[in-house]
Amino acid sequence: MNRISKITTAMLTGKKRALLWSAFALVILTGMIIYYGSHVKRVKINASNGSEYAKAVVTEIKEDYTGWEEGGGAYTGNQLVQVTVTSGTYKGQSCEARNSNGYEMGAYCRKGTKVVVMLSENEGVLSAVVYNYDRGTGIWSLVGLFLLTLCLIGGKKGISASAALIFTFVCILFLYIPMMYAGVSPFLAAVLVSLLILTVSILLIDGWSDKAFCAIIGTAAGILISGCAAGLFGMICHVTGYNIPDAETIIHIGENSRLQVGGVLFSGILIASLGAVMDVSVSVAAAIHEIKRNNPEFGRKQLYQSGIHVGHDMMGTMSNTLILAFAGSSVNTLLVAYAYEMPYLQIMSQYAIAIEILRGISGTLGVILTVPVESAVAAFWLCREKKGQAD
């Protein structure tokens, strides 16, 4: 009994040591990514003229020329307010702020309203313009609630999933975007970052195993299929990154950096399909792994067929998820087309419609083809041993 106890203790100690080393490696990797993203040299496009954005609280309404817009369902108009700055260089100082409250900028100010202001100083006099509501606290509270719920309900898996989400956010913000800005091909940047994200995410959630290895290979294949399909359909439909919304702004950035504007669209499609493809790939790999564990006599053909059967339902649900997500993002475009009774030829010739269809179909195609690819990879890998048993 003592010997068994010692062996068990040693195994637990080994697992804890491996977990600590993995956490340490993840922290180091995350730090390196943040360091890289923070040190990419950026060209200053717009001169700030000494202005600064800061948080502020409205302390007094001096003039109020706002009114309720029945059609818009909001207060619009101009205000002159007194604010106290609560962050930045001018923290603690009070000044007047002009507020032009519209649908996209400004805020309907009342005493105590928290806003973000644009400050400027001229000959020692501080002035401000109300930019918008201070939404930072609300957004971070929502993010915190989401992560807390994920951890409480998911337990250890939830904690791992939270770590994976944070790592994904860091990779997108500090690696993917800076790589494109620095001149790396957007498609190549998306592929490399996706491979890093999917590898770390799957290993965090499932650990290193045959199942995880198969899921990584299947997911990589799926996102490559989505990216290639997007590129092919883009050529057929004559759509590139120059036709996306805010194209003029992106082109202006490209003129002042090494950004390859043409590939931004297809790069984004590849990143957008990563989550759905990963979900399908992990689910199919887990199902085949479990089938092999319970039926060690099953060969590659039987495992492949089992994976296809398992993937049939996922194809429908995940395809629906992607299509609805892209359809939801294009509601405004569809509403305008409906209200103005645009003819079929005009609708189908619009860049906005073509891009949304391109995004939806390319991502969904990647999800569908991930099922047979993942089934083949898992069936081959799990039957590679002579004993025919999965780890």
List the helices and strands and how they pair.
Blueprint: H1 2-38, E1 52-69, E2 74-85, E3 94-101, E4 114-122, E5 125-133, H2 136-181, H3 186-206, H4 210-237, H5 247-255, H6 264-294, H7 300-329, H8 331-339, H9 344-349, H10 351-382
Parallel strand pairs: 3-5
Antiparallel strand pairs: 1-2, 1-4, 2-3, 4-5
Helix pairs in contact: 1-2, 2-3, 3-4, 3-6, 4-6, 4-10, 6-7, 6-10, 7-10
Low-confidence stretches: 386-391
Order of helices and strands: HEEEEEHHHHHHHHH
Order of strands across the main sheet = 1-2-3-5-4
Helical segment tally?
10
Between the first and last Cα atoms, what is the distance in angstroms?
27 Å
Radius of gyration: 26 Å
Mean pLDDT: 87
Structurally, how many domains make up the residues? 2
Counting DSSP E segments of at least 2 residues, the number of strands comes to 5
Tell me the fraction of residues in β-strands, as a range. Answer: 5-15%
Transmembrane segments: 20-38, 137-155, 162-181, 187-205, 212-236, 264-288, 322-340, 360-383
Keywords: Membrane, Transmembrane, Transmembrane helix
Pfam families: YibE_F
Organism: Qiania dongpingensis
